[in-house]
Structure prediction request, 192 residues.
Amino acid sequence: MPSMQNLLHSYLLQYKRLSIPGVGLFTVEHVPARLDFPNKTLHPPLPVIRFSHDGIATDKQLFKYLSRQFSLNETEAIRYFNDFAFDFKNDITNNGEAILPGIGKITKTFANAYSFQPAVLLDGYFPDLKVERVIRENAEHTIRVGEDEKTSTQMHELLAEEPKKDLWWIYALILGAVGIGVIVYYHLMKKG
Prediction:
């Protein structure tokens, strides 16, 4: 017959949450993969067990799970689980800590507050990967430019075009010369 602690560990892994009355709620969350550009490292996604002091009621699904595993009716499974929860909370109160194998260690900090230390850190099972940026010359890919999509070749052609030379200063010089000519002509005609 499996132990209650092993079944609770199995239940937590399958259903991603486990509530122990008077202690708190354990949840399994997945931390997504992270890319660390400066160190050229890819950190893998990891499941993490979190603990909170929420007084959430125990799932009826847990009682059905325990009754199937222990071959008990649901009422006996509820009583068996509540006895376990009461003993577990007393262990924490009397010893200052209690361990749930495969899940972690609960330590009493002050009053009715608890801290949680996970049993297994999965970092060792999923090592970080070293990554290098790959640059492929002349490889064509799609680039989003505003609302449009263009290929990398189109963008290289667009950026490679020489900008039209701005010749405004020539027109300004010509107009300035004509203006000076008109002024000189006006003064010459006025004197003569």
About this structure: The chain has a mean pLDDT of 86. DSSP finds five helices and eleven strands in the chain. The first strand starts at residue 17 and ends at 20. The longest helix spans residues 168-191.
